[in-house]
Specification:
Blueprint (H helix, E strand, L loop, with lengths): L2 E6 L6 H13 L2 E7 L11 H11 L6 E6 L3 H7 L4 E6 L2 H17 L4 E6 L9 H8 L11 H11 L1
Parallel strand pairs: 1-2, 1-4, 2-3, 4-5
The structure holds 4'-phosphopantetheine.
4'-phosphopantetheine (PNS) binds next to strand 1 and helix 4.
């Protein structure tokens, strides 16, 4: 049975993430969306439980997808889950350069870890949670960039 782990910060989940999750749910028997709780990174708008809650709402209706919070090294989490596939999304060449070194380091630490990549659809290739938060803070409507739950949460957080 193939079990892929899709890790990230998801602060908050946006349409690019949702698209990857939907497509990956058809490619793997089981998909775990793993939300990093990094106590040293204090610049998050949402704490890990809030981010998890948003994802759980979005994945309703996808029976082979679940979401969890993890801490520490990704490879330890993946190994503990009995998984070997790490799923990442790529938007552009910069992502690729960053991800390749991370994939190699992860494989150095856990030899069985295979990082696989899905290309972001072109319509979401410029999208990131950081950009979304930035434009929200200038009052821009992001309803076409994030799922409804994230929109609601962003509005609440920003007001
Ligand atoms: O959404 P992001 O912030 O780009 O996700 C980055 C993430 C969570 C995948 C990455 O930072 C990560 O795996 N962090 C866990 C710590 C870890 O394993 N570090 C070693 C990477 S080689």
């Amino acid at each position: 049975m193939s079990h892929a782990v899709f890790p990230g910060s998801f602060d908050p989940i946006h349409n690019g993430h949702v698209d990857i999750i939907r497509r990956a749910s058809k490619l793997f028997d089981q998909l775990t969306v793993a939300v990093l709780n990094n106590p040293y990174k204090q610049n998050k708008w949402f704490d890990s439980d809030e981010r998890l809650e948003l994802i759980e709402t979005v994945i309703q209706g996808l029976p082979n997808v679940k979401a969890e919070v993890f801490e520490g090294l990704l490879v330890n989490y993946v190994r503990d889950k009995g998984a070997e596939i790490i799923l990442k999304s790529l938007r552009n060449v910069s992502d690729f350069e960053y991800e390749v070194s991370m994939a190699h380091m992860n494989q150095h630490m856990y030899e069985r870890a295979e990082t696989t990549f899905l290309l972001t659809r072109p319509e979401w290739s410029y999208l990131s949670s950081t950009r979304v938060k930035e434009i929200v803070s200038y009052g821009v409507d992001v309803s076409d960039l994030v799922p409804a739950v994230s929109l609601q949460a962003l509005k609440k957080k920003f007001s």
